[in-house]
Protein backbone atom coordinates (compact mmCIF):
# COMPACT_ATOMS: atom_id res chain seq x y z
CA UNK A 1 0.00 0.00 0.00
CA UNK A 2 2.82 2.38 0.89
CA UNK A 3 4.28 1.91 -2.60
CA UNK A 4 1.12 3.35 -4.08
CA UNK A 5 1.49 6.61 -2.16
CA UNK A 6 3.08 9.17 -4.47
CA UNK A 7 5.11 11.68 -2.46
CA UNK A 8 6.58 14.93 -3.77
CA UNK A 9 9.24 16.42 -1.51
CA UNK A 10 9.51 20.14 -2.12
CA UNK A 11 12.59 21.93 -0.85
CA UNK A 12 13.69 25.51 -1.28
CA UNK A 13 17.26 24.13 -1.64
CA UNK A 14 19.19 27.37 -1.07
CA UNK A 15 20.97 26.90 2.26
CA UNK A 16 22.56 23.65 1.07
CA UNK A 17 24.00 25.36 -2.02
CA UNK A 18 25.22 28.48 -0.23
CA UNK A 19 26.53 27.23 3.08
CA UNK A 20 29.31 24.60 3.25
CA UNK A 21 28.20 23.89 6.83
CA UNK A 22 24.71 22.90 5.64
CA UNK A 23 26.01 21.11 2.52
CA UNK A 24 28.16 18.91 4.73
CA UNK A 25 25.07 17.67 6.58
CA UNK A 26 22.82 17.47 3.51
CA UNK A 27 25.09 16.95 0.47
CA UNK A 28 22.08 15.95 -1.68
CA UNK A 29 19.89 18.63 -0.11
CA UNK A 30 17.31 18.15 2.64
CA UNK A 31 14.98 16.81 -0.07
CA UNK A 32 17.60 14.26 -1.09
CA UNK A 33 17.96 12.93 2.46
CA UNK A 34 14.20 12.69 2.92
CA UNK A 35 13.73 11.14 -0.53
CA UNK A 36 16.22 8.39 0.30
CA UNK A 37 14.56 7.69 3.66
CA UNK A 38 11.04 7.54 2.21
CA UNK A 39 12.09 5.49 -0.82
CA UNK A 40 13.65 2.94 1.51
CA UNK A 41 10.30 2.75 3.32
CA UNK A 42 8.64 1.92 0.01
CA UNK A 43 6.99 5.19 -1.03
CA UNK A 44 7.00 6.41 -4.63
CA UNK A 45 9.05 9.58 -4.27
CA UNK A 46 9.92 12.54 -6.42
CA UNK A 47 11.50 15.85 -5.48
CA UNK A 48 10.95 19.44 -6.59
CA UNK A 49 12.91 22.59 -5.78
CA UNK A 50 12.39 26.34 -5.94
CA UNK A 51 14.78 27.10 -8.80
CA UNK A 52 13.30 24.56 -11.21
CA UNK A 53 10.79 25.89 -13.77
CA UNK A 54 7.44 26.36 -11.98
CA UNK A 55 9.38 25.47 -8.79
CA UNK A 56 9.19 21.86 -10.01
CA UNK A 57 5.44 21.89 -9.39
CA UNK A 58 3.91 21.53 -12.83
CA UNK A 59 0.26 20.59 -13.25
CA UNK A 60 1.42 17.07 -14.13
CA UNK A 61 3.44 16.79 -10.90
CA UNK A 62 0.59 18.18 -8.78
CA UNK A 63 -1.98 15.86 -10.34
CA UNK A 64 0.26 12.89 -9.61
CA UNK A 65 1.05 13.76 -6.00
CA UNK A 66 -0.87 12.21 -3.12
CA UNK A 67 1.13 13.85 -0.37
CA UNK A 68 3.50 16.81 -0.57
CA UNK A 69 6.25 17.56 1.93
CA UNK A 70 7.34 21.22 2.21
CA UNK A 71 10.63 22.66 3.53
CA UNK A 72 11.43 26.34 3.00
CA UNK A 73 13.07 29.16 4.92
CA UNK A 74 15.05 32.02 3.38
CA UNK A 75 13.14 32.34 0.11
CA UNK A 76 9.46 32.08 1.07
CA UNK A 77 8.65 35.35 -0.81
CA UNK A 78 10.15 33.93 -4.03
CA UNK A 79 7.53 31.18 -4.26
CA UNK A 80 5.16 32.46 -6.94
CA UNK A 81 1.60 33.13 -5.89
CA UNK A 82 0.08 31.26 -8.85
CA UNK A 83 1.98 28.10 -7.85
CA UNK A 84 0.88 28.55 -4.23
CA UNK A 85 -2.70 28.87 -5.45
CA UNK A 86 -2.40 25.58 -7.36
CA UNK A 87 -0.96 23.74 -4.35
CA UNK A 88 -3.70 25.28 -2.18
CA UNK A 89 -6.41 24.03 -4.55
CA UNK A 90 -4.83 20.56 -4.64
CA UNK A 91 -4.95 20.41 -0.83
CA UNK A 92 -8.62 21.44 -0.82
CA UNK A 93 -9.21 18.70 -3.40
CA UNK A 94 -7.56 16.13 -1.11
CA UNK A 95 -3.77 16.16 -1.49
CA UNK A 96 -2.01 15.68 1.84
CA UNK A 97 0.55 18.25 2.98
CA UNK A 98 3.34 17.79 5.53
CA UNK A 99 4.94 21.12 6.42
CA UNK A 100 8.32 20.97 8.12
CA UNK A 101 10.14 23.33 10.50
CA UNK A 102 10.59 26.83 9.00
CA UNK A 103 7.82 26.02 6.54
CA UNK A 104 5.61 27.55 9.26
CA UNK A 105 6.22 30.87 7.45
CA UNK A 106 5.65 29.53 3.92
CA UNK A 107 2.96 31.16 1.79
CA UNK A 108 1.12 27.85 1.42
CA UNK A 109 0.98 27.14 5.17
CA UNK A 110 -0.16 30.67 6.08
CA UNK A 111 -2.77 30.63 3.31
CA UNK A 112 -4.19 27.30 4.45
CA UNK A 113 -4.20 28.20 8.15
CA UNK A 114 -5.23 31.82 7.81
CA UNK A 115 -3.13 33.13 10.72
CA UNK A 116 0.32 34.76 10.97
CA UNK A 117 2.04 31.51 12.08
CA UNK A 118 4.65 33.55 13.98
CA UNK A 119 6.68 32.17 16.89
CA UNK A 120 9.75 32.65 19.10
CA UNK A 121 13.08 31.16 18.01
CA UNK A 122 16.68 30.84 19.17
CA UNK A 123 19.70 29.18 17.59
CA UNK A 124 21.64 28.01 20.63
CA UNK A 125 21.52 24.25 20.10
CA UNK A 126 19.04 23.57 22.90
CA UNK A 127 18.09 19.98 23.60
CA UNK A 128 14.53 19.29 22.42
CA UNK A 129 12.21 16.68 23.86
CA UNK A 130 9.09 16.06 21.76
CA UNK A 131 6.40 14.56 23.98
CA UNK A 132 3.74 12.37 22.39
CA UNK A 133 0.47 13.90 23.60
CA UNK A 134 -1.77 11.82 21.32
CA UNK A 135 -0.75 8.20 22.00
CA UNK A 136 -2.49 5.85 19.61
CA UNK A 137 -2.52 8.44 16.84
CA UNK A 138 -1.20 6.90 13.58
CA UNK A 139 1.53 9.56 13.30
CA UNK A 140 3.06 8.30 16.57
CA UNK A 141 3.19 4.63 15.56
CA UNK A 142 6.52 3.14 16.63
CA UNK A 143 7.41 6.13 18.83
CA UNK A 144 7.60 5.81 22.62
CA UNK A 145 6.70 8.50 25.16
CA UNK A 146 8.97 11.04 23.53
CA UNK A 147 11.70 11.75 20.98
CA UNK A 148 14.85 13.42 22.18
CA UNK A 149 17.02 15.56 19.91
CA UNK A 150 20.36 16.50 21.45
CA UNK A 151 20.56 19.76 19.51
CA UNK A 152 17.87 21.74 17.74
CA UNK A 153 16.83 25.30 17.11
CA UNK A 154 14.30 26.45 19.72
CA UNK A 155 10.79 27.40 18.65
CA UNK A 156 8.59 28.81 21.41
CA UNK A 157 4.98 29.68 22.13
CA UNK A 158 2.80 31.53 21.52
CA UNK A 159 2.69 29.96 18.04
CA UNK A 160 0.26 31.89 15.82
CA UNK A 161 -1.75 28.95 14.54
CA UNK A 162 -5.42 28.00 14.76
CA UNK A 163 -6.02 25.44 17.52
CA UNK A 164 -4.95 22.11 15.96
CA UNK A 165 -7.68 19.51 15.33
CA UNK A 166 -5.29 17.05 16.92
CA UNK A 167 -2.15 18.03 18.76
CA UNK A 168 0.27 15.13 18.41
CA UNK A 169 3.55 16.45 19.87
CA UNK A 170 4.49 19.12 22.38
CA UNK A 171 8.16 20.07 22.57
CA UNK A 172 10.18 21.10 25.60
CA UNK A 173 13.50 22.90 25.25
CA UNK A 174 16.38 23.27 27.70
CA UNK A 175 15.84 27.03 27.63
CA UNK A 176 12.49 26.41 29.33
CA UNK A 177 10.12 26.98 26.40
CA UNK A 178 7.40 24.68 25.13
CA UNK A 179 5.95 24.47 21.62
CA UNK A 180 3.12 22.71 19.79
CA UNK A 181 5.41 20.78 17.46
CA UNK A 182 3.07 18.27 15.77
CA UNK A 183 -0.26 19.69 14.61
CA UNK A 184 -3.03 18.12 12.47
CA UNK A 185 -5.52 20.07 10.38
CA UNK A 186 -8.09 19.43 7.68
CA UNK A 187 -8.70 21.95 4.92
CA UNK A 188 -11.33 20.97 2.37
CA UNK A 189 -10.68 17.28 1.70
CA UNK A 190 -6.97 17.58 2.43
CA UNK A 191 -5.08 16.64 5.58
CA UNK A 192 -2.23 18.82 6.83
CA UNK A 193 0.45 17.97 9.38
CA UNK A 194 2.93 20.49 10.71
CA UNK A 195 6.09 18.98 12.21
CA UNK A 196 8.55 21.32 13.91
CA UNK A 197 12.10 19.82 13.94
CA UNK A 198 14.56 20.23 11.10
CA UNK A 199 16.86 23.23 11.32
CA UNK A 200 19.23 23.18 8.34
CA UNK A 201 22.51 23.33 10.29
CA UNK A 202 21.65 20.21 12.31
CA UNK A 203 21.36 16.56 11.18
CA UNK A 204 17.75 16.15 12.34
CA UNK A 205 16.45 14.60 9.11
CA UNK A 206 19.01 11.79 9.41
CA UNK A 207 17.39 10.78 12.73
CA UNK A 208 15.46 7.48 12.26
CA UNK A 209 12.66 8.52 14.65
CA UNK A 210 12.15 11.82 12.83
CA UNK A 211 12.09 9.91 9.53
CA UNK A 212 9.53 7.53 11.05
CA UNK A 213 7.24 10.38 12.12
CA UNK A 214 7.44 11.93 8.65
CA UNK A 215 6.63 8.63 6.95
CA UNK A 216 3.74 8.03 9.38
CA UNK A 217 2.48 11.53 8.59
CA UNK A 218 2.62 10.82 4.86
CA UNK A 219 0.55 7.66 5.36
CA UNK A 220 -1.92 9.56 7.57
CA UNK A 221 -2.27 12.43 5.07
CA UNK A 222 -2.69 10.15 2.07
CA UNK A 223 -6.13 10.89 0.56
CA UNK A 224 -8.46 7.91 0.75
CA UNK A 225 -12.08 8.96 0.21
CA UNK A 226 -11.79 12.16 -1.82
CA UNK A 227 -14.03 12.89 -4.77
CA UNK A 228 -15.00 15.63 -7.23
CA UNK A 229 -17.48 17.84 -5.41
CA UNK A 230 -20.77 19.04 -6.90
CA UNK A 231 -21.10 22.78 -6.35
CA UNK A 232 -23.12 25.69 -7.72
CA UNK A 233 -26.72 25.89 -8.92
CA UNK A 234 -28.32 22.47 -8.34
CA UNK A 235 -31.74 21.04 -9.20
CA UNK A 236 -33.91 19.81 -6.28
CA UNK A 237 -33.82 16.07 -5.58
CA UNK A 238 -37.55 15.98 -4.71
CA UNK A 239 -40.44 17.24 -6.90
ZN1 LIG B 1 15.53 26.81 11.49
UniProtKB/TrEMBL annotation:
<dbReference type="InterPro" id="IPR009381">
    <property type="entry name" value="Trehalose_catabolism_ThuA_prok"/>
</dbReference>
<dbReference type="Pfam" id="PF06283">
    <property type="entry name" value="ThuA"/>
</dbReference>
<dbReference type="InterPro" id="IPR029010">
    <property type="entry name" value="ThuA-like"/>
</dbReference>
<protein>
    <submittedName>
        <fullName>Trehalose utilization protein ThuA</fullName>
    </submittedName>
</protein>
<feature type="domain" description="ThuA-like">
    <location>
        <begin position="6"/>
        <end position="221"/>
    </location>
</feature>
<dbReference type="InterPro" id="IPR029062">
    <property type="entry name" value="Class_I_gatase-like"/>
</dbReference>
